[in-house]
Amino acid sequence: MPDFLDYSVENEIAFLTVNNPPVNAMSPGVPEAIVEGVARAEADEAVRAIVLIGGGRTFIAGADIKEFAKITSGEKDRGGDLFPVINALEDASKPTIAAIHGTALGGGLEIAQGCHYRIALQSAQVGQPEVKLGIIPGAAGTQRLPRLAGVELATRMCAQGDPVKASVAAEAGILDQIVAGNTPEELRAGAVVFARDVVARGGPHPKTRERNDKLGDEATNAPIFEAARAQAGKRRRGFEAPLAAIEAVEAATKLPFDEGLKREQEIFLRCLYSDQSKAMIHAFFGEREARKIPDVPKDTPIREIRQAAVVGAGTMGGGIAMNYINAGIPVLLKETTEEALERGLATIAKNYQRSIARGRFTEEWVEERLDLITPTLSYDGFERADVITEAVFEGMELKKKVFAELDAVAKPGAILASNTSTLSIDEIASATKRPQDVIGHHFFSPANVMRLLEIVRGAETSKDVIATSMGLAKTLRKVGVLAGNCFGFIGNRMFGPYRREAIFLVEEGAGIAQVDRVLYEFGMAMGPMAVGDLAGLDVGWRIRKEHPEHFPEGVRYPLSEDKLCEMGRFGQKTGSGWYAYDERRQPLEDPEVLKVIADTAAEAGIKQREIDDAEILDRCLYALVNEGARLLGEGFALRAGDIDVVYMNGYGFPAYRGGPMWFADTIGLARVLERVKEFEAQHGEGWKPAPLLEELAAAGTTFAAWDRGRAQKVGA
Ligand code: T1G
Ligand code: NAD
């Protein structure tokens, strides 16, 4: 058994240092070690106070999430969980102090709340992020936090799951003191001073469970819970855990501690065994697995990124530049004309004004960021850039021209990245003499908001360029996913069949709003027709025209969307697309479109009929899954989990459904295949089942098991 706890005494203060790298999760054996440490300190006559502190880079990051699957599968029972630790600290006769650096999250903050006092470095953060795993705090966090922080903040922290800075936590009463300094050593020194002070002041030492002064009353609390439920309904539509967390905190304000705790446990277990939690834990680990590239070892050298450059300041270029300056990396931003440059800079300034208005950034912070942009109409200075991202119009000739120019000006070792949505990275790279330095950095619109960064590997892209790009994704606060160089990479390649199926359904008689409602109610951020109007119908139209090879004989073609584009209906950007839009950009059904659909169907001999919601859902989602299985089988994605991460972070797929591949597993691949074959029989070649889907359905297994099998094979 690794030594999870280091026991030392300094100045009559016992330090219990938790050692379970990398984040001191409460893995089996760790809680037990802390309980033993407290007992030892209690018995140690040389000890007058007890400090709990994290070894390494952080305090305790919560329960060990890896253990949850074992509990919900019945492989192990929940056991003592964290209560023996919390009770030992709270019931200790000597003052117990949690000394926090890095993050105190979930069970980590609950353990700290069990201590009599909490101190932290200025840079620390504390939070109850359990709702992001589809659960709620399960070690009395919903009962103790309102007693420390008050009902409003406790409700927000438990229902939204975002951590708060130490300064906010101190002001609210979660922390008793901010310790000067930035290092664990300075924290330890501060803890000795603080501990000796409380010893001098003497007991009794405050037990959080007994503090009721901040629990408010029915009248003051009711509007807080009402507002929190409304916000959860709006911002976390379809997620069960935020509402469950509010229910538990509300119980704390109405019931004595032990009864409130009992209520919390009931709600916690209900969430823990829910499909939503399993899906969201899959999402949590999926994001972390996506960083691991089997043939790019962890110790692959990383190229340093101190200066960036972006070519094109349009819809994407401006957002990409914002990501770099938000990370403190200066950026050159090049355009072709002064007017285009001004337009790009104005959009950036407008985006920041919106964030300031929402209280996300301060004026000063934004000023400092904007100073990091160097607008330019030439490549002067590009020789200093460590990474250059091209975001010009989506055309191969233009992109090759730009890459040839970059090849001439960029320094050796600079990473040359393209933000292309669909075009071949290998062909773009062929315009340079350094294809090993060329890679796809595919951001998603709006680039300063969407978390996904598809990193597209070319045939000659070097491993250190890939490793640097995966690291850069984290620096830019993005979720990096490696994709192979096929048409549309992972996300857009699958999105094609998904949107096409939606258009076919409309041509066969489904309502435009009906299709969007079905996918919206399923949990998608927006329905496929409305998404087309938002992104611009002309983008897909241009791609279809450039790539007729994607619609060989016998493969059905989305006729009506081309008709709309020929009429100039590109979507919101032209005021109309599948919908007409009023002055508040609200979508309206447009008889002109209904006529286009009816005429198109008649010309193509498509018989219109009543179509029910179930068929709409199955055809759209299974088109996604089938194409996902196809590109997975062809090796253009490393894991089914990566596809899920792409869709949850780039295409508005609900995290509580775990992504399209995880969702298919919950339905059962045999059932999915059965439906795909039905659609193939009814709608032809476009529905040919993916070989991998057939293989896994026949084997009675899942995409998740397939991922695990491959991980074992490559020893990940
Ligand atoms: N359990 C198990 N593994 C964890 C873990 C955890 N809580 N947190 C991180 N890891 C692994 C992660 O998978 C990765 O592994 C490595 O540690 C580094 O993580 C009772 C029930 C702390 C902010 O939700 O938010 O407590 O990929 O890459 O970017 O009420 O990790 O290297 O093999 O993310 O520096 C609540 C989850 C649990 C916090 C650090 N706690 N963790 O971020 O590192 S539920 C959380 C994080 C709970 C109680 C309930 C972040 C971090 P690998 P990383 P990072
Ligand atoms: P856009 O039309 O909004 O902007 C393109 C900009 O490039 C224009 O401002 C143009 O003036 C500029 N430009 C053209 N040639 C240039 C040159 N030689 N030097 C400097 N600037 C030049 O286009 P966009 O939507 O930002 O798309 C840019 C790229 O990003 C395309 O490859 C597109 O496929 C991809 N992309 C777009 C989206 C999206 O949702 N719009 C999402 C992901 C990727």
Radius of gyration over C-alpha positions, nearest whole angstrom: 28 Å
Shape: globular
Number of strands: 19
Q: Mean pLDDT, nearest integer? A: 96
* Number of DSSP helical runs: 30
Major β-sheet strand ordering: 12-11-10-13-14-15-16-17
Bound molecules: (2S,3S)-3-hydroxy-2-methylbutanoyl-COA, nicotinamide-adenine-dinucleotide
What percentage of amino acids are in beta strands? Answer: 5-15%
Indicate the structural class.
Answer: alpha/beta
Q: Tell me about the biggest sheet?
A: 8 strands, mixed
What low-confidence regions span 5 or more consecutive residues with pLDDT below 50? none
Q: Cα distance, first to last residue? A: 23 Å
Helix content: 40-55%
Word description of this protein:
- By secondary structure, this protein is an alpha/beta fold.
- 50% of the residues lie in helices and 11% in strands.
- It has 30 helices and 19 strands.
- Helix 1 links the parallel strand 2 (13-18) and strand 3 (49-54).
- The two termini are 23 Å apart.
- The chain binds (2S,3S)-3-hydroxy-2-methylbutanoyl-COA and nicotinamide-adenine-dinucleotide.
- Residues 22-23, 25, 61-66, 82, 103, 105-107, 110, 129-130, 133, 135, 137-139, 141, 285, 288 line the site of (2S,3S)-3-hydroxy-2-methylbutanoyl-COA.
